[in-house]
From TrEMBL:
Domain Toprim: 203-308
Gene Ontology MF: a single term: ATP binding
Signal peptide: none
SMART domains the record matches: TOPRIM
Protein name: Twinkle homolog protein, chloroplastic/mitochondrial isoform X2
Length: 628
């Protein structure tokens, strides 16, 4: 049976203004039936809960769509509140169907309350025994129902539940629910929280999604609880927070702001489904995340949790519901965390189950005591020209690839592609690319070895190269590196060298400020993608250089190179035959931020000019032998 429209106690002139134009209503209902609605079941001036023609209510056939017909019967608007649907639309008696948010918002614009209603004018009466039994099945006592003035209303041949919305004890609005969970509200009444008087002087308040949940909270001992009047949105809005005048969907918050403003702690106990989570986020945006808390509903079984407060009360009892509220957690604020948010990660770190968090071996015994490669860190590498910085990094990448299979993105702007390929292949195959000059009498790699090596290059490395005449910017490099991480699973990035990048900066920005900002971008990229970055930076011109390794503070541009990096390494090759073997390479580890993976010190390697390989040596014995 259709539910008759409630007739407020007003004068004859007002009644005449509210009469429905039957012709318009007939035309509108015909359009609604063409769309898929049961137009005859919907009365003007009411919000009607229906089965959505678009999603059919999902597997549970939930009546998730709310349809409203205007007072004069000329237009209708609807919204499906299922998270996987969210269908919205409008239609008019003399217009086409439209699914636009703009039209809907105009038609459903919330007006200031113009009606004065009373229990008598609405025909409300005490709950019958049948409805008292219905509530008892849901663990809601008669005492709680009486204190919250839950009443009933006879409409046609059925009796529906009437949730009375009050401020200072006076009736402001009324929301109805039948036994099939169909809801509608009195038209042209002010939107406020259900149970508003219960939070009048409360410093802690609880906000739930439905009136039944408000009553359930009281059974668990929490009277300082209110329910929203309109349910939850299908998803969080991606638009900026509207002004008070334009925030029609959440008008009840603004109408009750004098009550919520006094609260120092607001527990958002909305439903556990996606719309409920979206409602919690929308409430937190408006109330202030800094004073909001959220609940975690207990597990129902291995795959799902309880949905709301009334479910917990029914199946687990008031003590369990009380425990849920008492264990509410701070609402997350972007950028603000607690150590407990990372306990799982800390446990994995302790048990060494994260993978490479203790560092990947460099492949050289002597260097492993000083430096290991950790995902998400930044290593600055410097050294005088021709000291072998790039050669050493290439050898390091080959070692890591051979031992753990890492892949790398190479932004090596001083190397031609063919030359870089030659250097990497020689280290990988351990044979010279050519048999002339540096190749001496060593057998060069065969064609078959070359073909296998080319496949290894293709599988292990991505190239970041700027083919234009202009210099690449750091943003350009990092954007492509990000793609390489996502597309090719890259674990490491080499930027070689700093002075080949475009360093244009605003006139009012110093080079020191620019370098600091640039290194911050690189570190964020490394941390976010778990990608180790090696950044080669040349030292400034050394006027009084006497042949020793330079200092990290000698890097051209800024002291931030050593201040902001995780690891700082100087590569130095002996150039004086009288001082020692010319193939002796000194790896000077000058900074290690994390003591777990290394420490400051020097390691010595032997450089094979033919293949470009570096190998462990007993440096002291080698120097002693050379001097002898």
């Amino acid at each position: 049976m259709p539910i008759p429209r409630p007739i407020p106690a007003v004068d004859v002139e007002t009644l005449e203004k509210q009469l429905v134009d039957e012709k318009l209503l007939i035309m509108l209902r015909k359009k609604l039936q063409e769309i898929g609605f049961d137009g005859n079941a919907c009365m003007p001036g009411q919000y009607n809960g229906l089965l959505c023609p678009s999603c059919k209510g999902g597997d549970s056939e939930e009546k998730s769509l709310s349809l409203h017909i205007t007072e004069d019967g000329s237009a209708a608007v609807w919204t499906c509140f299922r998270a996987k649907c969210g269908w919205k639309g409008t239609t008019r008696a003399y217009a086409d169907v439209r699914s636009t948010f703009e039209t809907m918002s105009k038609i459903t614009r919330i007006k200031q309350a113009t009606r004065i209603i009373t229990e008598e004018s609405l025909g409300l009466e005490p709950l019958c025994n049948e409805l008292l039994a219905y509530f008892a099945e849901r663990m809601i006592s008669g005492e709680t129902l009486r204190r919250n003035a839950v009443l009933q209303k006879r409409t046609g041949n059925q009796i529906v539940i009437a949730f009375t919305y009050r401020r200072n004890g006076e009736l402001v609005s009324c929301k109805y629910r039948d036994i099939t969970k169909k809801f509608w509200q009195e038209a042209d009444t002010e939107k406020i929280f259900y149970g508003l008087d219960d939070i009048k002087e409360a410093s802690d308040i609880i906000i739930v999604e439905g009136e039944m949940d408000k009553l359930a909270m009281e059974e668990a001992g929490f009277k300082n609880c209110v329910s929203v009047p309109d349910g939850a949105p299908p998803k969080v809005s991606n638009k900026a927070l509207p002004s008070e005048e334009e925030d029609t969907k959440y008008k009840y918050l603004w109408n009750c702001k004098d009550y919520t403003a006094k609260a120092s702690r607001i527990i958002l106990a909305t439903d556990g489904d996606p719309p409920g989570q979206a409602l919690a986020e929308e409430l937190a945006r408006r109330l202030g995340r800094e004073r909001c808390w959220r609940v975690k509903w207990p597990k129902k079984n291995d795959s799902e949790s309880f949905k709301d407060a009334n479910e917990v009360l029914m199946y687990m009892g008031p003590d369990a519901l009380r425990e849920v509220i008492e264990n509410a957690e701070l609402y997350p604020i972007r950028g603000l965390f607690n150590f407990k948010d990372y306990f799982d990660e800390i446990d994995d770190y302790y048990h060494q189950s994260l993978g490479f968090e203790l560092g990947v071996s460099t492949g050289w015994r002597a260097l492993n005591e000083l430096y290991n490669v950790v995902p998400g860190e930044l290593t600055i590498v410097t050294g005088v020209p021709n000291s072998g910085k790039s050669e050493w990094i290439d050898a390091l990448l080959c070692n890591i690839n051979h031992s753990v299979g890492w892949k790398f993105a190479l932004c090596s702007m001083e190397n031609k592609v063919r030359e870089h390929a030659r250097k990497l292949l020689e280290k990988h195959i351990r044979k010279p690319f050519f048999d002339v000059r540096y190749g001496e009498s060593v057998e060069r790699m065969s064609v078959e070895e070359l073909e296998q090596g080319k496949k290894w290059l293709s599988d292990s490395f991505s190239l970041i190269r700027c083919e234009n005449d202009c210099l690449p910017s750091i943003n350009w490099v990092l954007d492509l590196a990000r793609i390489a991480v996502l597309r090719h699973g890259v674990n490491g990035l080499v930027i070689d060298p700093y002075n080949e990048l475009d360093h244009q900066r605003p006139p009012n920005q110093t080079e020191t400020e620019y370098v600091s900002q640039m290194l911050t971008k690189i570190k964020r990229f490394a941390q976010h993608h778990g990608c180790h970055v090696w950044f080669v930076a040349h030292p400034r011109q050394l006027h009084n250089w006497i042949g020793g390794p330079p200092n990290m503070y000698d890097i051209s541009g800024s002291a931030h190179f050593i201040n902001k990096c995780d690891n700082g390494i100087v590569i130095h090759r002996n150039r004086d035959p009288e001082a020692g073997p010319v193939d002796l390479v000194q790896v000077c580890v000058r900074k290690v931020r994390n003591k777990v993976i290394g420490t400051i010190g020097d390691a010595y390697l032997s450089y094979n000019r033919v293949t470009g390989e570096y190998s462990d040596i007993d440096a002291a014995a080698l120097i002693k032998k050379h001097r002898a």
